[in-house]
Design goal:
The chain is α/β, with parallel strands linked by helices. It folds into two domains: 5-32 and 81-197, no CATH class; 51-77 and 220-349, 3-Layer(aba) Sandwich (Rossmann fold). The chain contains eleven helices and 16 strands. Strands 1, 4, 5, 6, 7, 8 and 9 form a seven-stranded mixed sheet that branches. The protein has a five-stranded parallel sheet with strand order 11-10-12-13-14, sandwiched between helices. Helix 8 links the parallel strand 10 (224-229) and strand 11 (256-258). The radius of gyration is 22 Å and the shape is globular.
Length: 350
């Protein structure tokens, strides 16, 4: 088993200086790829009394952010920046450079880290994976795919493996995005790292390119009333106990019922393509719609009462789409949504 020398070097430098380094501190060069921007938001649409039902937030969110999104407050979008590092090392799910360390892949199981392969030497590469995309399917489609589009066609994209997503291969084929190189263990003489988390105009342009690619691949958008995306058995359990009855009601109004966990990306995308409203329980499966729903479409998100979160409101605001939500009520075995309330919201968003 090879010793992770990069980890030992990082630990020594951190001990010596009393802290780890930031990305900007270890970069030999950096520049702004796309500027910051402030935008006026659009208030979320929701029924009276919905906010009173919120009992808790997603552990990844905070109320200040959620309240600003609900109100449509002015949003500050950070710039996209590039940083060049010298002699950076990728070892397993981490990248190291001096006293800087960042996770870029899925962590090994708790019973131990896998052995590192023989280290490769690479002259130039661009980092194209992040820990959020490695851990969460929603971030994989929302953030990792646009990130992979920043380097030029002739550049080498590099990263570390994330969790195995059942739909990754299909979406890569549909969108023309080959997987970045995953060497496992490599020293990169010049590694370009991007700070690209913001919903700025540069991110929007890449979203639109991907939406156009998918539309052309599948023959263009066909207007349809809407879709309901069932969460299925993927991810953290969030059980909508009256889902079957809700699906029956929505189907009678012309909605397509899609269960992503039982279908391949092409079938999923064809059923969502051009949908004017996308309804789903909050979660990563909403990302199945971001490249296929109608350009002027709307999200209607069913919020679990104890796990409120609005990451897709950020996407909707950037793309000029509408966003509404209802907050479900606790029920035995999960939570229940008011069908009449959802139908009223469909009318408001149509």
């Amino acid at each position: 088993m090879l010793t992770n020398a990069a980890y030992l070097g990082w630990g020594w430098r951190r001990l010596l200086h009393g802290r780890g380094a930031t990305l900007s501190e270890v970069a030999i060069e950096s520049w702004e790829v796309s500027p910051a921007q402030e935008t006026d938001g659009r208030p979320a649409v929701f029924p009276d009394g919905a906010l009173d039902r919120i009992r808790g937030l997603s552990p990844w969110r905070d109320w200040q952010v959620e309240k600003a999104l609900i109100d449509g407050a002015t949003a500050h979008h950070h710039p996209t920046r590039a940083f060049v590092l010298t002699d950076a090392v990728i070892a397993g799910p981490y990248v190291y450079c001096g006293a800087w360390k960042e996770r870029i892949g899925a962590e090994a199981p708790s019973h131990g880290s896998p052995a590192l392969p023989t280290r490769q030497e690479i002259e130039d590469a661009h980092l194209a994976t992040t820990w959020t995309g490695a851990d969460f399917f929603g971030n994989f489609l929302l953030d990792s795919f646009p990130l992979e589009m920043i380097p030029g066609d002739a550049e080498t994209r590099i990263g570390a493996p994330g969790k195995p997503y059942r739909h990754e291969v299909g979406y890569r084929d549909l969108l023309g995005l080959p997987q970045p190189w995953m060497p496992g263990h490599a020293r990169i003489r010049h590694l370009t790292v991007y700070s690209d988390f913001a919903q700025n105009p540069f991110k929007e342009s890449r979203y639109r390119q991907l939406r156009d690619r998918l539309s052309r691949r599948l023959g263009g958008q066909v207007s349809r009333p809407g879709v309901f995306l069932a969460r299925g058995d993927d991810g953290v359990p969030r059980r909508l106990v009256n889902e079957a009855a809700l699906c029956e009601t929505l189907a009678a109004r012309g909605f397509e019922i899609v269960v992503p966990s039982r279908a391949e990306p092409e079938e999923i995308s064809r059923k969502i393509m051009g949908a004017r409203i996308v309804i789903a329980v909050e979660g990563s499966h909403l990302s199945h719609a971001i490249y296929s729903m109608a350009d002027n479409g709307a999200f209607l998100v069913i919020q679990p009462p104890d796990r409120f979160a609005m990451p897709y409101k950020e996407f909707a605001d950037r793309m000029g789409m509408r966003f509404g939500f209802v907050v479900a009520e606790p029920a035995d075995g999960g939570f229940a949504a008011d069908t009449d309330e959802i139908l009223a919201m469909v009318d408001r968003l149509s």
